[in-house]
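Here is the promised in-class demo. Please do not try to memorize the tokens; focus on the logic of going from shape to residues.
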């Protein structure tokens, strides 16, 4: 009797570096997992998809934002539209994600780390070990997988950041750092300082390209130093994004001064003061765009409309400056160690609800240019970040792997279908998925399951998986 699968994807060009598959293959799915892979599969299926497009393991975005404080609660929808099947939200707030997950979820898998603001939490920028341990414990028990140090936006003493990394390592919690402190900014000096502070510890150092904007020295000099720092410190895991736009908070205090340090620096780079007046001038000059909530997704807007949205929000919204040089984005995407592994482990977007989910739209240009092979693109956009999250059944399409798949129109550099656990959550620009499955640790499983969410359990207590060389 012929085998009857749940789903059969026929004729696609499969790119699966983990399993050495590159070419035309059929893919069978059963119970949310890959059941068979072969050049030609015989059998029947309840659903059959014929395609000549490229078939990738589902994209895994290792740095984006889903919290509504960054402009809207619709980041999961926007990620699914861009082909993402699993993502790491970098800052939360996790309670905000939980509040919106049922209504705005798109059916993708979400891990999240909580932004650490000790001044707000404890009234000091130098909390005690007991206070930090309690914060880590409560964060994990809610379902978040760890902690984000927001040094570039909200600087802390270097000793506080170093100690938080140590305590997260001890607790088996994930920890990431947007480099910056009270003594160095979100630039190459901040990166150097962070790397030196955490020697011997595990750390996700966020968006390496953000430290190579030519703020201290010429862009290429900063890129070469960033590459040297990563080569000398293989314990650091990192990503970079390929959008020219950044993302930042545009809130001003009661005196009209800009609060966020990244925003202040961006304004200064355009010769503008870090005030309400500077924000308005930046928008009108076309060097600042404001995130607009459409009710379904969020978009960047400029001009008078952007000023209106920002003012009506009481300045408490997010925006983007075009401050990421093409040179640093290009170099960091393709730079390798002497052993052939990538210096920057993954491509990311720093997007989500910030409208720059361009891993395919821009990242595939690196393939067309010849900076990356298609296998290397999939390694950086899917396999490496999946392994980093210890989701070893994702980022690859071997038999038994989770059926998380992104079908890609390579010519148009966009996702035509996003599939999670065998179910289509986006097809031809139409969202079909709903809800959220959270990636969490053992400490957070019970809480999330009581709230009715699906759960993928992971464990960060061990060493970082060995890097893959193609």
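The designed amino acids, position by position:
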């Amino acid at each position: 009797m012929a085998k009857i699968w749940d789903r059969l994807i026929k004729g696609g060009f499969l790119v699966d570096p983990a399993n050495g598959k590159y070419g035309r293959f059929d893919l069978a799915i059963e119970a949310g997992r890959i059941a068979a892979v072969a050049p030609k599969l015989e059998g029947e299926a309840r659903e059959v998809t014929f395609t000549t497009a490229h078939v990738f393991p589902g994209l895994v975005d290792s740095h984006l934002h889903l919290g509504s404080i960054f402009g809207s609660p619709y980041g999961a929808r926007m990620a699914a539209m861009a082909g993402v099947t699993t993502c790491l939200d970098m800052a939360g707030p996790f309670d905000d994600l939980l509040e919106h997950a049922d209504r705005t979820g798109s059916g993708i898998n979400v891990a999240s780390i909580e932004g650490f603001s000790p001044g707000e939490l404890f009234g000091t920028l130098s909390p005690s070990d007991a206070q930090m341990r309690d914060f880590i414990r409560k964060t994990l028990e809610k379902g978040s997988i760890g902690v984000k140090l927001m040094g570039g936006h909200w600087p802390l003493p270097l000793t506080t950041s170093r100690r938080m990394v140590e305590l997260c390592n001890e607790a088996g919690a994930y920890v990431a750092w947007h480099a910056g402190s009270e003594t160095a900014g979100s630039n190459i000096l901040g990166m150097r300082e962070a790397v030196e502070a955490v020697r011997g510890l595990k750390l996700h150092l966020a968006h390496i390209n953000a430290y190579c904007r030519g703020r201290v020295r010429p862009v290429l000099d900063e890129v070469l130093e960033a590459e040297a720092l990563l080569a000398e410190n293989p314990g650091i895991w990192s990503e970079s994004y390929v959008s020219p736009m950044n993302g930042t908070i545009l809130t001003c205090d009661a005196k009209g001064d800009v609060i966020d340090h990244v925003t202040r620096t961006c304004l200064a780079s355009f010769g503008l003061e870090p005030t309400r007046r500077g924000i308005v001038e930046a928008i009108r000059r076309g060097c600042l765009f404001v995130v607009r909530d459409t009710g379904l997704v969020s978009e960047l807007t400029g001009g008078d409309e952007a000023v209106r949205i920002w003012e009506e929000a009481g300045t408490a919204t997010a925006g983007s400056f075009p401050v990421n040089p093409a040179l640093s984005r290009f170099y960091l995407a393709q730079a390798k160690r002497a052993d052939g592994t990538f210096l920057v482990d993954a491509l990311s977007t720093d997007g989500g609800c910030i409208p720059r989910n361009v891993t395919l739209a821009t990242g595939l240009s690196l393939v067309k240019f010849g900076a990356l092979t298609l296998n290397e693109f999939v390694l950086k956009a899917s396999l490496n970040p999946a392994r980093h999250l210890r989701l070893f059944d994702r980022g690859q399409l071997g038999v038994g792997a989770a059926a998380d798949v992104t079908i890609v129109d390579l010519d148009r550099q966009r996702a035509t279908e996003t599939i999670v656990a065998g179910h289509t959550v986006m097809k031809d620009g139409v969202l079909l998925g709903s809800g959220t499955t959270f990636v969490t640790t053992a400490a957070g499983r019970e809480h999330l399951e009581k709230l009715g969410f699906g759960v993928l359990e992971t464990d960060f207590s061990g060493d970082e998986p060995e890097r893959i060389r193609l």
